[in-house]
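To assess whether ligand presence alters the predicted conformation, the chain was also submitted together with cytidine-5'-triphosphate. Input:
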Amino acid sequence: MTTAEPGARPRVVLGVSGGIAAYKSCELLRRFTESGHDVTVVPTAAALQFVGAPTWAALSGKPVSPEVWADVHEVPHVRIGQQADLVVVAPATADVLAKAAHGIADDLLTNTLLTARCPVVFAPAMHTEMWEHPATQANVATLRARGNVVIEPAEGRLTGADTGKGRLPEPGEIFELARDVLARPGATGGDLAGRHVVVSAGGTREYLDPVRFLGNRSSGRQGVALARTAAARGAEVTLVAANVAVPDPAGVKVVRVETTAELRDAVLEAAASADAVVMAAAPADFRPAALSEAKIKKADDGSAPEVRLVQNPDILAELSHHRPREGMVVVGFAAETGDETGSVLDHARAKLARKGCDLLVVNDVSGGKVFGSPENEAVLLSRDGSTTEVPRGSKAALAQVIWDTVSSRWQTS
Ligand code: CTP
């Protein structure tokens, strides 16, 4: 087990197995080293067919070997795993997943996987057929049941001409997910494994005509942080993304929508199999009563069209009052300001009761606080009236507290 000193550089083992996506892990390695991590690269022999040992050694500043027979006096097959704070295997081939699931230890990487007691993240990459094969799926299920985080591959272009599920997620996104894992010291990995969570993010667009819409400033960052941290804790995650301005997080199923009506349909569909739904999106409360099929023309007399608005359905209230599954935890967000009729928390309590959700994440937006910021601070208000203050910090840190709270509700329900 690792005994990292406080303030020491986190020790990361980057396992690389033999897939064409091995070249992408050079970028992942750079991200780790440039942000102060101490990285030991452990490639398989097959990985070295794609990217040579000198590349890994130069980028990590350490010698690299796929074998247990190099530097035997240092007992690397035990030491590397024992001392690690995190092991990331990217790309993880069907072969390495199978070996890990069955405890086979025939090279340095598979030995390291047996000796590591820290969180282990596998980022699989392979052809769709190999990923979907019952053998691979059974191995993935075994690894997840043991607390390993096996992230879902991305969809898109694969080697050759085919497309489908099996791509390695973008290295920058694997890095962000790995950081979320490291941000929970003492946690051994996937505590949300076996749970399906749905997160909505971004701001909806309500169209007036084919080119014009009413929108809002939501970037989707808080929702994306929620999706990524849940994936880093082993959950199956569906992100319903409305015009989100940041890249898709790794290991997450993304459903893209534009309007509140589309958001509602996508959230309700995904919620049918969900254990929790977090409505971090900013759906527009109103939409134009009429949608013009043709672009609205300017009038010659200088007049402007009048736009009549109608209310959109309240997705959070609908979901809270008609839960598709028993035990589902429903979380809403509220941006509030205090006024003469009550404090921020008074308004938030009334909103929680009105919406019927279990948990409300309350942002005090008096004076324009929070909008557009990479950070957030909030009060988590529970249905039973209890509150948890989350001090100013990263959106990922707030997301972790939200999942802790959701998870404790699952334990007690
Ligand atoms: N929400 C929703 N559907 C809508 C509008 C909002 O599900 N049509 C969700 C948001 O995703 C968020 C919460 O409700 O979780 C935010 O509510 P808010 O917009 O503040 O609530 P309102 O009822 O519009 O309250 P207010 O009158 O204060 O604007």
